[in-house]
Amino acid sequence: MTDSAAPAPGAADDPAETRPAAPRPPWLRALTAVGRRWPSLLALAWAVYSLSDVGDGLEYMILFVLPAAGYLFLAVADRPRITWAVVLALLATVVILRALDIDPWPPLALVVIALAALGLVNGRLRGPRVHAVQAPGAIAFMAAGLLVLSVPPAIGGYLVAAGLVGHAVWDGFHWRAGKIVARTFAEWCGMVDLVLGLGLLVVLITR
Predict the structure, then answer these.
(1) Contact at 8 Å (CB) between 145 and 64?
(2) DSSP label at 181?
(3) Helix 153-177 to helix 62-77 angle, to the nearest 10 degrees?
(4) Crossing angle of helices 38-51/183-206, nearest 10°?
């Protein structure tokens, strides 16, 4: 006589447990892969559209000055999750100041200086390398923007192109590090900067 109970019929051979999951069709895998790159796709579409009606390129200066200030704020706040909200708030502030006929660059420069001082005092900008470079980076991009404003537009356009490509490298550094800002923003901003920077350079050379 045996004390062991007989297994329930089909318990060990349940097809739902032994059958491997069906592989996803190629079109679904491709669609998923494309969906993961939505920041790059949106950035590419907008950059190409913008280049179709570009002027001297000086209008793009805000795209490497403003995000640099946003990166600095996020480094001090240490909250990458609010990246998009911070950038949109900064952009809205600049739009409002311009609508009121107020030059946004002096206030923006003061904000960068204040954030750099605050970050050094509270220690956030004295941390690992990616934090330590935020203040110098923001100040460098701010200085590049001021330099663009101080030279003739014919030269300023080339400086803007260089600034955009430089900020694309900055975005790539943060995307790889996965710190300070949301990776979706670093990807979007990097693609915008790279396409606009190289595209603007081609336009200026061939015009």
Answers:
(1) yes
(2) S
(3) 30
(4) 20
